[in-house]
Amino acid sequence: MTVWGAWPAKEGFAYVSDESGRPQPWLQTWTGKRLMLPVDGAVTRLAWRPDETRLLAVADVTGGQDYRLAELDPRTGEVEWIAAEPGVRREIGVPYSSGSQPYSPDGRLLAYATNARDATCLDVYVRDLTTGASRMVMEGDDRYVPICFSPDSRHLLVLRFHQNTDQDLFACDLETGRTRHLTPHEGPAKYQPGGWTEDGIYVCTTEGRDYLGVALLVPGRPLEWIATPDADVENVIVGPQVVWTLPQDQHTMLCTSQTTVELPGFASQPFGYDGFVPRFAGDRLLVQVGAADRATEFCLVDLATGESHRLTDFSDGLPDDLVAPETVWFTAADGLEISGLLYRPRATAGPVPAVLTVHGGPEWAALPVHDPLIQRLVRAGMAVLAPNVRGSTGRGLAYQRLIYRDWGGGDLADLEAAARFLRSLDWVDGDRLGVHGMSYGGFAALSCLTRLPHYWRAGVVICGLADLETDVRALPPTWSRRVVEWIGDVDDPEDLARLKAASPLTHAADIRAPLLLAHAEGDTTVVINGTEQLYETLTELGKTVRFIRLSRGHLPDDRDEWDRLDAAVVQWFRDHLAPRSDAANEATGHP
């Protein structure tokens, strides 16, 4: 079961869970009583109206990421769709995040973004909740999303989300219609607002820095820096006091100007991705805490005492032999230091096979939270290494931008270094390595299988990019204005040649390892065409390949389908990473 995005109220809190089989809103009182509020589609995030009479839900009804907005009555469960035209994408903050506040403090307005006018942009709208009328307050020439309102509800803070490493903030005056650019800067910079107070806007930013620091932004003045550690500050939370979060190995630290509290696990991601963003519940913080060897739970944390009170028991029923990873480091060919999470099976006889699993994004990270697939692999006697190759988040701006216009370049060298690292471990059988990934991670896994074929005995790719030209041309329209800087220009002959050289489909004949592919027909992020073509090519070449067609979306949103897919992945690696005789190794060409 997966949970995320807890949002506190007076009587308890709301959150999203796939306990019923598909992500839905749930309510839990502070005393532990729970209730599901069913909504059509897969719910991605929630937000309370300030008076708590309605709960906003963002739902993907079709699996095509045309997110729709609905308000739920928590007393009756009645659902009112307020922005639900098909084929239009809507956001109430940064995509895939939970960190913004879409309602005005006075409860009159709801802010959201939509690409209804132009499929390649997100415009910002404000809806009057009394009349139901909506009006555009900022016309976009890129992805613009609302973040929060000023304390007097007169201004709306808007983020231009050009890249994951390049953003800008604007203040829209809702009375005059004027817009003010708050963060003019040169070169890429991140701006991640945490809240707007009478003092100003608290942000995590890399302005003039490599790592995210905490600053107070007052329009017309230089930034007032509050915390500038040599690590990325992942969130700043505004309430009775100002709190920011810092990573410490596999734990999160809650920091104020007076104190620091270490949480019993991982609890913060930039913009609240995956719901990992603390929120004030009175004078305490409602925190989503994850760890690799237990389920993600919701806790109340007292900053004054440092005490943490667990509110949920989602770990009940999980196996009692789950494994926590070790943080490891290894060096790429160019000297770059790469980190990863290494999972070692419990008592085993002799060297074990290992699976390299690559996260998506690519601007994401391998996180120390419960991953059912990883734990299944480990329980089946396999080691797992989840690396944070160049382009991953959490290592500063420069490290994250190393992937830009270099997909299948330096990242592939990092993955080869990961394979060599696994081979160097005396408890790992270096001749029985597998590679796995989803989305960008699928591209990375295919790059390994096609361009480093001698390392691998098996591969699994889910919703992966097989042909960069095809996939770039079919990316979501709202990504079109960032893709040249991010991946490359398919209309430039030199760039196109580079992308073709890096495309797994170009090197399909070099694949040696049996390959399991999975993809959904309705995937609007990475279209299925490349996977289908790769499957046909490998079949014609007589390679060992299997293709699982998923039901919908970029990744399954049905818990039973996820479970079946995970089971198939584990069985694939069981079958193809099993010990072989020397004669069989010689016959297949594996070392």
Automatic annotation (TrEMBL):
Key words of the record: Hydrolase
Superkingdom in the source lineage: Bacteria
InterPro entries in the cross-refs: 6-blade_b-propeller_TolB-like, AB_hydrolase_fold, Peptidase_S9_cat
Residue span, Peptidase S9 prolyl oligopeptidase catalytic domain: 375-577
Gene3D superfamilies xref list: alpha/beta hydrolase, TolB, C-terminal domain
Pfam families assigned: Peptidase_S9 (PF00326)
Protein's name in the database: S9 family peptidase
Species name: Streptomyces cinereospinus
